[in-house]
Amino acid sequence: MRTRPDSRADSGAARGIGAGILRWGGRLIGGALVVGMILVCGTAVRVWQVARIEDYTRADAIVVLGAAQYSGTPSSVFEARLYQAASLYEQGVSDLVVTVGGKQEGDLYTEAASGKMYLMEAGVPEDAILAVETGSDTLRSIEAVADAMHGRELESAVLVSDPWHSLRTRTMARDAGLDAWTAPTRTGPAVYTRESQAHGIARETAALLWYQLTHFSADFNYTAGQ
């Protein structure tokens, strides 16, 4: 049985439409991948740029982001942050240092209490330290600090953490209503090697993108586990 000419034409048109859809679909997927790569690379550059900023402008408080501690002894990551905070206090950046962070199950001390003890041993007066003993990740810690500071009518904070952590902490603090800038530590495991630096930038790029997309915590066992 012969195929009618109009049937062959309809079949060819259908194939043409299908091919066109595939071409446009491929272009859309390719375009989305390019946009995604630009977004990721642009965020990584911003993480690197803000990591290099050291702003010693006087503030209402120096805020130290918590990290792991062991029976009251700060981990090397936490100690590097606390050392920087004590230095900022000695330089007159603020009259108040805020430590923040809760504790894991079985811990005897909170991160905030451990940090306070370290600072007192470093010469910071007890009445110049506010320990905010809540927060299991960066977001909850920043929100707890913001609540504590607003309750004392304090508005500005210089944030102390690892360099690569600076942009995310600053973003969260500003979202929480604080006038915040950063003066990160330049010592500790986070900055020892090129490998640790690259790992920190990659991790913080992913965490910041997740936070900006969802406004949920995005620590991936980062600060709480170090």
From TrEMBL:
Gene3D superfamilies: HUPs
Taxonomic superkingdom: Bacteria
Entries under CDD domains matching the protein: YdcF-like
InterPro entries: Cell_Envelope_Assoc (IPR051599), DUF218 (IPR003848), Rossmann-like_a/b/a_fold (IPR014729)
GO cellular component: plasma membrane
One Pfam entry name: DUF218
The entry's keywords: Membrane, Transmembrane, Transmembrane helix
Nucleotidyltransferase found in the keyword field: no
Residue ranges crossing the lipid bilayer per the database entry: 28-48
Segments forming domain DUF218: 60-204
Name used for this protein in its record: Membrane protein
Source organism of the structure: Nocardia jinanensis
Source lineage: Bacteria, Bacillati, Actinomycetota, Actinomycetes, Mycobacteriales
